Amino acid sequence: MRIPNHIGVIPDGNRRWSVNKGFSKEKGYNSGLLPGLMLFQLCQKVGVKELTYYGFTTDNTKRPKVQREAFTKACVEAVEMLSHENADLLVVGNNKSPMFPKELLPYTTRKTFGKGGMKVNFLVNYGWEWDLGNLMENDSNNRKLITNCLKTNDISRVDLIIRWGGRRRLSGFLPVQSIYSDFYVIDDYWPEFNKNHFYEALNWYNSQDITLGG
Amino acid sequence: MRIPNHIGVIPDGNRRWSVNKGFSKEKGYNSGLLPGLMLFQLCQKVGVKELTYYGFTTDNTKRPKVQREAFTKACVEAVEMLSHENADLLVVGNNKSPMFPKELLPYTTRKTFGKGGMKVNFLVNYGWEWDLGNLMENDSNNRKLITNCLKTNDISRVDLIIRWGGRRRLSGFLPVQSIYSDFYVIDDYWPEFNKNHFYEALNWYNSQDITLGG
After folding, report:
1. Which Gene3D superfamilies match (chains A, B) (predicted)?
2. Among A54, A92, B5, B22, which is most exposed with the fewest C-beta within 10 angstroms?
3. How many angstroms from the chain centroid is the CA of residue A174?
4. Domain that holds residue A118
């Protein structure tokens, strides 16, 4: 079976899940923590080399304060949880903004935790405009030069993006690294994660051709 | 019904369709011309304001010469066909490259044909690296500044992308304008286009929420 080198994860649907359960919207984020850990362990098991979680974006921070605080807290806890695993961990996002949680500043250079192994990237206060904002005038059409200028230049091309919660859009997730990503959407909400979702996505990916436009 | 302002079209599957019919791969492109016209007319009818066709990319030009010549010819004919309609037409792509067909140079500034109306963009020898290659050093995270520096700055945000041919990826289609695009995939090949595909995509789009991350 052809395993993607790099999987991107858009863990959407926390708020809708929460409302369906009769809770207020912000209560759902905490229920995304365990899925995040389960997914990490599954990726480790099948030999994925890099995993990128979409934490929250600069657009998401425009939501009501109670939600913003809840998803920020969940991201902090998720990163701390992953730091107890064997991983090469990096938190990436606009950390000069007050929206970036101080607790995550120590993670903004890549560090090896445990025995290391899989590269794990966690996007926190990420914005496509932040990512592209540093591109230099070059007019060279040189891909290497462009990708080197990305603020996310330590994150490689994404092979497979899995989005939970049914929406079929990228919502600004790494626009350059996702140029040729295969995009798999799971209708269940992220807190409803189960390992079959992951294996379904891998099976589907295995059936795709990789042409990169050729 | 909520009609998207701007629809992006990825007309994929011409080669697979051709091979299934017992022809060689490059024969399929010509059968994409009529679908292109039908789609234009449907968009006009329901009041779409802007329509962008994914002609061919810089990556596509690495294919065998016989294919390259066939898809280039089909793009030239498609643009000439659209110039007989009522449209504000623009061909966008790297026209300094020998891969750009000379016949389309007159279309590289937007012109009104007939009574004008819908903005129609046709991407020819388009590459994401070409599009982003002119971004200026600004480090301002200012979206307006970034989008102004895109080579495709005359193309607005895409609301709905429809891809024919079953592949679930963007393949470099306008990475910035497609940040929040809803992405609808039709399994049938582009030469098999029929108007129900279009109405299915519109119905699906109508059922989506538009949050832009909020």
Report:
1. Decaprenyl diphosphate synthase-like
2. B22
3. 9
4. 6-125+157-206
